[in-house]
Amino acid sequence: RGSCIHFFEKRQELSYEEGILMWQGRLVIPSSLRASILNVLHEGHPGITGMRAVARTHIWWPNVDKDIESHVHACFTCQENRPKDPEVPLFSWTVPREPWSRLHIDFCGPFEKKYWLVVVDSTTKWLEIFPMERLTASKTIQLLRELFGRAGLPRTIVSDNGSQFTSSEFKVFCTSNNIQHITSSPYHPKTNGLAEREVKTFKQRMKAMRGVTDVNL
Fold it and tell me: Taking the complete model, does pTM exceed 0.85, yes or no?
């Protein structure tokens, strides 16, 4: 009865496309397939937010958000690896209108005998992750050159005060490419909070997918 009411309320927004029931461009999933769809969305343990983001692009059924939440809460692995500490408010940034104009970068690891360089675009939240054997300024610059060669140069890079980012080599790299480099200060420790948050998400997902507990930041 409840589902019928939902469908009735959205009857003006429903349509048939090649024999498939759609709602606002999303596939309407019958009740018999919903459990399977939830399992597919849950692959990699992306959490409630990650599952909802994919669902809201591709599929729909009545109370899909609540079903996703229940599915994640029933997953032992997700509950074991969910954040234990409250989120610290991020430093307030204005979101650039132009994608790829400001990037936030940070490191995490070691994990699987590697460190990882995390690069996130502040506008689109597009994420790039690169494995590194050693955390050096020269290797960091090499990876950024490769990234910028295919994605273009940003206007600004935001990082912490790690030695790789405060080195003269990194300064020359930014200056020669007309990139403004901003580092976090002791007065605003969350200046690079966007990259730090992505590092935490990356760590949590790697732990969830591989069932390990010794991932360090």
Answer: no
